[in-house]
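Final report, results section. Input specification for complex C-07:
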Amino acid sequence: MQDFLTLVIEPFREVFAGFKRFAPNMLAMLTILIGGLVFARIVRVLLRKALTALSFDAWSDRMGFTVMMRKGDLWTKPTEAVVRVVFWFLVIFTIMIGLGALKVHAVDNLVAQFFLYLPRVFSAVLILVIGYVAAGFLSRTVLIALVNNGYHYAKLLAEAVRLLLIVLILAMALEQLQVAPNIVVAAFSIIFGGIVIALAIAFGAGGIEAARRMIEKGAAEKVEGKDDIQHL
Amino acid sequence: MAGSADIVIGIPSFNNARTIGHVVRAVQAGLAKYFPELKAVLVNSDGGSRDGTMDVVRSTRIEDQAAILVHHRIDPVPIIATPYEGIPGKGSAFRAVFEIADALNAKACAVVDSDLRSITPEWVELLLKPVLRGEAEFVAPLYHRHKFDGTITNSIVYPLTRALYGRRVRQPIGGDFGFSGKLARFYLEKDVWETDVARFGIDIWMTTTAVANNFKISQSYLGAKIHDTKDPGADLSAMLYQVVSAAFGLMEAYPDVWKKVQGSEPVRTYGFQYAVGLEQVNVNVQRMLGIFREGLRNLREIWTAVLGQGDFGDVESLGGAGVDAFRFPRGLWSRIIYDYALAYHRKRLPAEHLIKSLTPLYLGRTASFVLEMADADQSGAEEEIERLCEEFEKNKEYLLNNWK
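Structure output:
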């Protein structure tokens, strides 16, 4: 009978012992989560006040970040955007640390993989942000230069430059994230090559008359449109 | 550097072997004729020429003194031909001249361009004598130019600097200046020699610095300015960027000065003014208007952001006019320049993009000026420039109200 009782109670003991071993980890996780969330909220409030005091929105306007956000279809204020990004970064960071405190093998692996993957995410985000700004800058450089030289289709060509650069940047970011790298490289080659061939065919065959007009116009201006004016 | 000199004349150069000999001879003749009793030094500050420019300078002498009607004995003017150090550009070349003037404790200095074909010995007198007499500390040039030449000066730099600083210096970016040794030292003390001033914009910087710091200003009539043909492929928008960014940059440096100024007053002018026969200038108005219309079609976003809906609407309404009826109003043009100055101040766009986007508008205004003045003589064109300057002065309130 005693043996039978032992057989019945033993699993409960083991569960209880397991719970006793696990409870501190659980408590630690909850403490980390609550503490982290409170910390993230405090940071959110302080950061919002600090950025407002520093006129971050006005500075972003001057530096062109607001325009960049609008172009990316982001309509929140720059201050609010930064506050939200920092808040959610802290929340995710807290969750990952909290899960790590559980000391569960499978979760530990997940957390380790998350932290190993983090540098790639940062690199990809950096590539996207810098690439987006660079694409806008180069596209505008092309636009202004073409307009100032009197070329037609300046906007079209500037947008084509932007599109090509964005395709390139997206491919770079996806390659950095290791999202099906072989497919990304193949897809990029196909799309990029396709755009170039399409432009070549459009200009060389479909737009042969337009091309001829542009070349003739340029040559005619050189001969007839003599301009001796000294601007300085 | 040992020794001293009363006069230092600087000639910046870069691959000007073809033309610099004439400039050196004119300067030597001017010094011999008008300042024989003063010690003078000629400085060629060179940017690393590979065509023997410095050799030409060192070997140039006036062969026939009687031909320039000099009857006293003249010693050759000491020449310092040296490559300058620092950022490549006219500003760095001038800095070397200022340093030599400072080391020699010069009383009066002048700088003249190395590609001038119309310089005469009288230029030396006209640029230096007002300084040596103590009547001026800065002498700007006043040239006789074709009514369609110098349009960046006539439509932007002159009206803007006049309205801002209140002095009617007609050629603020002329390039040939006279100034006192004291002003040369003042220039040297300024912390600008590692900035764009060293590369370009030294002319407007010298004029504005002298005006804004209350040095005695004058101008001298030098006749025609004819210089070596510039590279025909030179990019207009790059020129515009260099000049306009320098002018806008100086607005940032002296807001406390120009905010107080109202109206403008003339500066003392030396020299006997006479009419000069000038070569015909061909202007391709159709091409200018074509670029203006391309701007309207393609730069709408930038122009709306810079000018606002109101002024952009006025610009847009010009797009439909035919060539003969095309007129770009003076008031609108002055507001556009102030809008660009404000956008530069607020850093709305990268400076180069911002100012280069002004090119089609500038060409529109220039085309309008050419059409309006087609039958006018030089004085008629000058009256039109005067009316434009008055618009800039009248609309300065707009700039002041929006400059935060």
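The CA atoms of residues 344 and 351 of chain B lie 6 Å apart. The longest strand of chain B covers residues 217-224. This concludes the modelling results for the funded period.
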